[in-house]
Amino acid sequence: MLLKGARAREIKDSRGEKTIEVEINGCKASSPSGKSKGRYETPSFHKSLKWNVDFINKTKFDIEIDEFNDLGKVEKFIKQKAKLKNVREFGANALYAFESAMLKAIAKEKGKELFEIVSEGKTIDKIPVPVGNAVGGGVHSHNKEHPTFQEFLLIPKEKNVKNNVRIMKEVYSKIGRLLKSKVKNDEGAWQTNLDDEEILEILKKFNNVNVGVDCASSSFYCDGEYNYKNKKLDRETQIHYINSLIKDYNLLYCEDPLEEEDFKSFSKLKKSEKNMIVGDDLTVTHIDRLKRAIKMRAINAIIVKPNQNGSLLELKKIFEICKKHRIKTIMSHRSGETMDDALADYAVGFQADFIKCGIATKWREVKLRRLVEIEKIV
Ligand code: PGA
Ligand code: ZN
Fold first, then answer.
1. Which of 22, 77, 72 is nearest to 45 (CA)?
2. Residue 35: CB within 6 Å of ligand 1?
3. Ligand 1: does its nearest atom lie under 6 Å from the Cβ of 33?
4. Which of 41, 335, 357 most suits a substitution to test ligand 1, by most atoms within 8 Å of the C-beta?
5. Is the CB of 214 under 6 A from ligand 1?
6. Each residue of 224-242: pLDDT tens digit?
7. Ligand located closest to 257 CA
8. Distance of CA 63 to CAs 60, 180, 239, Å?
9. Is the pLDDT of residue 182 over 90?
10. Does the reported pTM lie above 0.90?
11. Quick one: which H or E segment has residue 76?
12. What is the mean pLDDT of residues 42-48?
């Protein structure tokens, strides 16, 4: 098909903050936005959201697009037209929404599913396992007394997505009752004033889910110290503490347990098939930081946020590198989400091991529903 032009407009995400939606041949795609951002993340827009909207609305593209790799032609064109050194300078939110709308348009033209365009005809061997945020703390909390860690995650153990989603929801409701919590944070996770280990004690009781945490530790690290509610730990004691939490609470998943600069300390954490040390703020979905993390043996799993990078071509490379180095992949939403369900297609199309997209709230549920739908198709 010939990509002539696109329409862009400003929309609001689930937190009521501004983000971008792009429409190509009747296919709409939008970008979520983060709040717990890594220092090295690609900026969301070039000069401003308005600049990107105007650029997209005014540009005549005239590029033939028929398959995933044609994103290369479009990225080259954008780079030249906007006079950028690297296409990511266009802004990750804007680029992701644009590229996603383009792939949806190709899928529609060919009568295919979006994930089929992304997988480029390769066999789909697995459907990613959902990872859901059940209890919230850190910067996503509105209450004054809150857990230090940002997310307490449920990873169900069933083989198929439909049952996994059901179990995740059941456990999530039970946790709400156990916490006697009625308030949810901006991602739909329960709010509580219990501390980290008290929450992990509760989660440990459920046999049908594995447990994970996103420590988001850059958010409580300052000048060599990790500042908890009731204690301060230096680098070495933080490493010991995290290793002991993994052992005591049988954590399958531990995201950003150390601050985003400290590749070296990450490499000292114990890693195995049964315990993933996950990079998010550390790696910010950038190839160079992923390569550095692999070289230093800092992680054995990585969060992939499409709008942390912007380029779906780079995302493809990231998945290839991870496969080669046996790094587990977790395709992830952002805390400020839109109703776009394409994340499920990208998770399946790139063959991610997991998909982190929350449990409750309509913005999270559309992605889980799409995942169940895809499971029926493949
Ligand atoms: P976000 O981060 O608020 O930037 O989406 C969530 C996370 O740390 O995983
Ligand atoms: Zn994170």
1. 22
2. yes
3. no
4. 335
5. yes
6. 999 998 899 999 999 999 9
7. 2
8. 9, 56, 51
9. no
10. yes
11. helix 71-81
12. 97
Tell which residue, 226, 245, 149, has the closest CA to residue 192: 149
- 168 is written with which tokens? 């995740």
Tokens of 197: 């280990």
**Lookup: tokens for 366:** 């559309």
| Unique residue bearing structure tokens 């315990």 | 275
Asked whether the CA dihedral 20, 22, 27, 29 is positive or negative, the reply is negative
Report the separation in Å between the CA atom of 257 and the middle of ligand 2, taken as the mean of its atom positions. 10
Ranges of beta strands (E only) in the chain are 2-3, 7-12, 18-24, 27-30, 63-64, 129-136, 151-156, 190-191, 209-214, 221-222, 225-227, 232-234, 251-255, 276-279, 301-304, 328-332, 354-356
CA–CA dist 65, 6 (Å, integer): 13
For residue 328, the cross-strand partners are 301
For the segment 281-309, what is each residue's pLDDT rounded down to a tens digit?
A: 999 999 999 999 999 999 999 999 999 99
- If you measure from the C-alpha of residue 355 to the centroid of ligand 2, how many angstroms do you get, rounded to a whole number? 13
Average pLDDT over residues 166-179: 96
Q: Residue 144 and residue 289: Cα distance in Å, rounded?
A: 34
* DSSP code string of 343-375: HHHHHHHTT-SEEE--SSSHHHHHHHHHHHHHH
Strand partners, 277: 254
Which two structure tokens, joined as six digits, stand for 135? 């209890």
Residue 282, pLDDT score: 98
Nearest CA to ligand 1 atom 2: 36
Considering every ligand atom shown, identify the ligand nearest to the alpha carbon of residue 256 and give its number. 2
Asked whether 37 lines ligand 1 (CB < 6 A), one says yes
